[in-house]
Structure formats: C-alpha cells, structure tokens
Automatic annotation (TrEMBL):
PROSITE patterns: DOMON. Residues 1-26 form the signal peptide. The keyword Signal applies. One of its GO terms (cellular component) is secretory granule membrane. The gene is Moxd2_1. Keywords: Signal. It comes from Scytalopus superciliaris. This is MOXD2 protein.
Amino acid sequence: MMAVSSRIYGMLFILFLPCFCSGQHAAPLLLFSTFLDPPYMASLRWDHNKEELMTFELQICTTGWVASGFSPHGELSGSDILIGGVFPDGSIYFSVS
C-alpha cells in the first residue's frame, strides 16, 4: 500500500508541476483518453512509460471539488482516494488518503 501511495505522490507531482511553474508548459503526450460522462464535462487522459509509471490527466468543468480513486480490486476498501479543488480565492488544494 505504501509503495502505491509513494508512486501516486510521484505521479501527482508530475501532473501538477505545471500549476506551480511560471510560463507556458507543453502538455504531456498521453496516448489514451475517454470522457467519463455523457455531457462531456469530465475527461481522463493517461499513458505509461517503459518503467510502467502511469501519468494521468483529469479535466473536469467544475467550480467546486473532484475526487478520484485507485483500487487494485475496484472496491472502495483499501483504495487510494485523491481529492482536489479550487477555493473561492483561486488557490488550489489537493490531498491523497
């Protein structure tokens, strides 16, 4: 479980690095994508490298928060939950549990 969490933290750093850097950034080339809902408000892109490090990009049109989870068995018990959002002042929060 700890290995999964440390991989997720590393992956999240890669995903959110552009949020903390100034200037323009190039979007990573992610080969796989899908919309997660019928009105096309949420999309997920992903890919992996030769070392099997997964990179995810989740884009959701929302003014509140979003949560996502990773589980080896598709169940809530034992899963890693990611929660993030934007405060009214525009600052971003993100946590992994």
